[in-house]
Specification:
The structure holds three protein chains of three kinds. By secondary structure, chain A is an alpha/beta fold. Chain A is 51% helix and 11% strand. Chain A has two domains: 2-94, no CATH class; 103-216, Rossmann fold, CATH 3.40.50. The longest helix of chain A is centred in the C-terminal third of the chain and has 18 residues, at 163-180. The radius of gyration of chain A is 18 Å and the shape is globular. Chain A starts with a helix and ends in a 6-residue tail after the last helix. Chain B is α/β, with parallel strands linked by helices. Chain B has a domain at 71-221: Rossmann fold (3-Layer(aba) Sandwich). Chain B has helices at residues 7-29, 42-45, 55-68, 82-93, 104-107, 169-179, and strands spanning 72-75, 98-100, 122-127, 129-131, 136-140, 155-160, 165-166, 190-194, 199-200, 208-209, 216-221. Helix content of chain B is 31%, strand content 20%. By secondary structure, chain C is of the alpha/beta class. Chain C has three domains: 1-42 and 309-395, Fumarate Reductase Iron-sulfur Protein, Chain B, domain 2 (Orthogonal Bundle); 48-134 and 195-294, Rossmann fold, CATH 3.40.50; 400-472, no CATH class. Chain C has helices at 8-16, 19-41, 46-62, 64-77, 88-101, 113-117, 120-126, 136-143, 160-171, 179-196, 222-228, 249-260, 296-301, 316-320, 322-327, 338-348, 366-370, 377-394, 398-414, 417-430, 448-451, 464-472, and strands at 81-85, 106-109, 130-133, 199-202, 206-208, 213-218, 232-238, 242-243, 268-273, 286-292, 435-436, 439-440, 456-457, 477-479. The longest helix of chain C has 23 residues, at 19-41. Chain C is elongated. The N and C termini of chain C lie far apart (66 Å). Classes of the chains: A alpha/beta, B alpha/beta, C alpha/beta.
């Protein structure tokens, strides 16, 4: 991601104190614990003067949609949330907005299929941006899998609470990835990617699992 | 099972119901914080403003949609031949007994034998309205227009006057509103919407016609 | 009412074992989704319809008390009777009493989730009243003494062969394979029941406050028969089913059919207003409408979750749900399944016994997108999860306690960069024992739940922030080009 963004000529800041947005606890019903971590997030990213870019749609959605709920009784924090929300972007959304600066020469050559991350798709409305970016890369062909927008079964603690159900959902996902005939699956959420890769590498499936940023900045190492 | 319930016991139910009524309303009272929404624009919102809709297009749409749900349509050019058409259908279906509405076009017809509804082979009714967009017949109940004529016999034939076809369900409700002058105190006891023959897909999703209602629904448009 | 705790995990693991079930589920959900999409795409004003329906429902739930009173008045004006039931027990006993008062022996029922909710059949039968489900799917389910699998398609978990065997056993007919033949047998059996029934029981899809009209939507014609042939018609409605104006039905009827089965219109819609009137030759002589609360008025009071009551029971959320697709209806342990079950079951029952359900979702949000009244399912589920955790604070159970501790620790670590980095280092050290090819396997509990089936990425030996620090000499900000 760093390589992609810097390649676009952007100045990048990485606040060393950053940790997490608090979603894991929030989605498990532990609002108090989530609030503590969310406060830390606000302290680190406080003023929202500069664009915040995140490699997972899920985290962006947490800040944009659920912080308001978390801090509903704290007007000071709410106003900070509002500022930050207007300037936080999921990676593909951000890159697409500035795509004229993007180098389209990925070292990756081949056919990829795209998995929609649920939160990017349904809470941020991101669907065409990553696809357009993939299609614009030289030597990369996008092929759609069946039910690209179906959940991969991750769901945060859901995958630990109901691992059997989660696995069954993931199995369907990897089946459609393999059926698509692509040699790589690309997504824009670390959660989905970790989940999909977990099964792909366990079962040694013949498909690469890449974040969109990894695809764009792909380096031929072999 | 012959025992009659003493009146005290009957009254207990009524008392319970009364108590519960108070309880439910009390519980809801704290929920009702807002004024009723008086915005009544709703019924007009979805109505096509285009008032002079081409009647022959409506008729065609109705036919297409009614046939799409396995309904059958016969188009009649002159009114005089209605009786012939009906008798022809009765012959064709090999029906022994027919039951029909006691309304205008049917009343004056000399149809073979009228019989008890439960054993009739064909039920013949009018249709007060029809909806082009969905292929739906709309039948109002009344002393001369029993509900069961269109329901008990295995074949239902409806006589539809083409002027009574409206565009869509919103137009239909507007039309009903018009004919009742928005005073629903006089609403007939049952308005039946009929879209094709009775159907089910309850056994392995196989579409089967004529479960409980008629297996054939035939419309004669005059 | 639920008496035992719903064990979603156990139920779902059980369901996952059956390939037959999986096949039926995939078949059914694939088809329903495709049909729905096609039907919805035909309507250019679909989004406006959804918004309007939601607006109407918001108004209804916000003013439910006054709308109920208006509906009651309208029904009585049209010659019907209204009964108020605060819970399931009471609703059933009201129906039983109506039956007894009128010496009813045979009851025919059309499909109604509200009657499933109050277990009406059990009550009627235990009072010596013959009660028959007449929707084909429900009839099959009743014959096998089972529960409906889906609110719209109750018997999709049964194969033709199952049904053919069942009919053969129960009626002594040959084992027909053709659905047409099986349907014909059911038609004959049930037609007798209709003609000899003294009372018909139905649900209610919508009830119009201003006119006292109830709308019943179906495809088979059994609801029309059940509400027309017998002398008494009892309709049971959850109190949230109200629509204020008669003409607003057009909005809800077009949303319901397309969302539920992808039909432009269901085969039959009956708008019933009061009992038979003078001069009419058919229709019931008595019309009773039972208002069922059973926890709904409590939901109406909850700002966070009251939108659960906007539901029109179309089942679109169920058909699109990737979790339902794996585990099916029975895993949810009660009448309602899928996302709507996960949302409504815990609110109509003891939260402690149903605490699994709000967590039985990956929060993917597909349900929210298809809901005709735009219920924000993830939001409601999250709010219920918080309630479950809060309740756990008062009454701890071991698993909940462990989770609570885990999140306490997590929250501490993740709000203090020092400990966060330290933990990272510890992980790098600890993972040594589980690492293979830069991935982790065989992790200890609770991570074992992950590594049983999947690998977990290893923590990088040198975390990103350290690499960053080295490269840019501790500076936060850099222009790389």
């Amino acid at each position: 991601m760093l390589r992609v963004l810097s390649g676009m000529g952007l100045e990048i800041e990485f606040p060393q104190e950053q940790t997490c947005c608090g979603q894991p606890a929030f989605n498990s019903g532990h609002a108090k614990e989530a609030e503590k971590v969310a406060c830390h997030f606000l302290d680190v990213f406080g003023d929202g003067d500069e664009a915040i870019v995140c490699p997972s749609g899920s985290c962006v959605s947490m800040v944009k949609h659920y912080y308001a709920e978390l801090f509903r009784n704290d007007s000071e924090k709410l106003s900070r949330v509002e500022k930050i929300s207007s300037n936080i972007y999921e990676f593909s959304e951000f890159v697409f907005q500035h795509k004229e600066a993007l180098s389209l020469n990925s070292a990756y050559k081949g056919r990829v299929t795209f998995h929609d991350s649920c939160h990017a798709l349904r809470e941020l409305g991101i669907s065409s941006q990553p696809r357009e970016l993939i299609k614009s890369l030289n030597g990369v062909e996008l092929i759609e899998m069946e039910m690209a927008d179906a959940c991969c079964g991750f769901g945060g603690t859901f995958s630990i609470k109901y691992p059997e159900v989660s696995k069954s959902m993931l199995q369907e996902k990897t089946d459609s990835i393999l059926d698509s005939g692509a040699d790589a699956v690309v997504s824009t959420d670390m959660g989905c990617l970790m989940n999909i890769k977990g099964l792909v590498s366990r079962k040694k499936m013949p498909v690469k699992v890449l974040h969109l940023a990894e695809l764009i900045a792909f380096e031929d190492t072999k | 099972m012959e025992r009659k319930i003493p009146w005290e016991e009957q009254n207990i139910t009524k008392m319970i119901s009364k108590e519960s009524k108070a309880l439910i309303l009390q519980n809801l009272c704290s929920a009702s914080t807002m004024e009723r929404d008086v915005n009544e624009s709703t019924e007009r919102v979805f109505l096509d403003p285009q008032l002079s809709i081409d009647q022959s297009k409506l008729q065609n749409d109705f036919i297409v949609n009614f046939e799409m749900v396995s309904g059958e349509v016969h188009l009649l050019e002159e009114k005089g031949s209605l009786i012939e058409k009906i008798n022809e259908l009765i012959q064709e279906l090999g029906a022994q007994s027919v039951s029909f509405w006691n309304t205008k076009p049917l009343k004056s017809l000399e149809i073979a034998s009228e019989t008890d509804l439960a054993t009739a082979d064909i039920g013949i009714t009018g249709a007060d309205f029809a909806i082009a967009d969905t292929g739906t017949l709309v039948l109002l109940s009344g002393p001369e227009q029993p509900r069961l004529t269109s329901l008990l016999p295995p074949v239902h034939i409806a006589i539809l006057e083409k002027e009574n076809i409206v565009l869509d369900i919103h137009a239909l409700f507007a039309k009903l509103g018009e004919s009742y002058e928005k005073n629903y105190d006089e609403l007939c006891t049952c308005i039946s919407f009929i879209t094709g023959p009775s159907r089910t897909a309850d056994i392995e999703l196989n579409l089967t016609l004529g479960v409980h209602g008629p297996g054939r629904a035939i419309v004669i448009i005059v | 009412m639920i008496t035992e705790r719903i064990d979603f995990k156990k139920n779902s693991v059980e369901a996952l074992k059956s390939p037959k079930l999986k096949k039926a589920l995939v078949n059914f959900t694939d088809r329903s989704r495709a049909f729905r999409r096609k039907a919805v795409n035909e309507v250019s004003e679909w989004e406006e319809l959804r918004s309007e329906a939601r607006r109407i429902k918001e108004d209804v739930i916000n003013n439910l008390d006054s709308y109920l009173l208006e509906l009651e008045k309208s029904v009585i004006r049209m010659g019907g009777n209204v009964h108020w039931a605060k819970d399931a027990e009471e609703a059933s006993s009201i129906v039983v009493d109506i039956a007894r008062e009128n010496n009813v022996r045979n009851v025919v029922k059309s499909k109604s989730m509200a009657t499933e909710e109050i277990e009406l059949n059990r009550h009627l039968i235990s009072n010596g009243i013959n009660t028959v489900e007449t929707d084909l799917g429900e009839y099959i389910v009743q014959l096998c003494d089972d529960h409906p699998f889906h609110i719209i398609a109750p018997a999709i978990h049964k194969t033709k062969e199952d049904i053919s065997k069942l009919f053969s056993e129960k009626f002594g007919v040959p084992e027909y394979e053709e659905p047409e033949k099986l349907t014909e047998i059911a038609r004959k059996k049930l037609r007798e029941k209709f003609l000899s029934a003294d009372m018909g029981v139905s649900g209610v899809n919508f009830a119009v406050a201003e006119s006292g009209t109830i709308a019943i939507v179906e495809n088979e014609g059994n609801a029309r028969l059940a509400t027309t042939v017998p002398d008494i018609h009892v309709a049971i409605m959850g109190i949230e089913k109200i629509v204020p104006k008669f003409e607003q039905l057009s909005i809800f009827l077009s949303l319901l059919a397309r969302s539920a089965t992808g039909q432009k219109s269901s085969t039959y819609v009956s708008l019933i207003t009061g009992p038979r009137r003078e001069g009419e030759s058919d229709g019931p002589r008595q019309f009773h409408l039972v208002f069922l609360d059973n926890g709904r008025s409590d939901i109406a009071r909850s700002e966070e979750t009251k939108e659960s009551l906007y539901c029109i029971r179309c089942g679109a959320c169920i058909n699109i749900c990737p979790v339902y697709r794996q585990v099916g209806g029975h895993s949810y342990g009660w009448v309602y399944s899928g996302p709507i079950g996960a949302v409504i079951t815990p609110q109509l029952n003891d939260l402690e016994k149903t605490a699994d359900l709000p967590f039985a979702s990956s929060l993917c949000g597909a349900c929210r997108d298809v809901c005709p009244v735009k219920i924000d399912f993830p939001h409601v589920l999250l709010s219920l999860r918080q309630k479950v955790v809060e309740q756990g604070r008062k009454k701890p159970d071991p698993a909940g306690f462990m989770e609570k501790i885990a999140f306490r620790v997590w929250s501490f670590v993740f709000s203090k960069p020092f400990y966060y980095n330290l933990t990272g280092k510890m992980m790098v050290f600890l993972q040594y024992f589980y690492q293979r090819d830069n991935e982790l396997r065989g992790l200890p509990y609770p991570f074992s739940k992950w590594t049983k089936e999947k690998n977990f990425p290893a923590f990088s030996k040198k975390p990103f922030r350290e690499r960053w620090k080295e490269k840019y000499h501790g500076k936060n900000r850099t222009l790389l080009k």
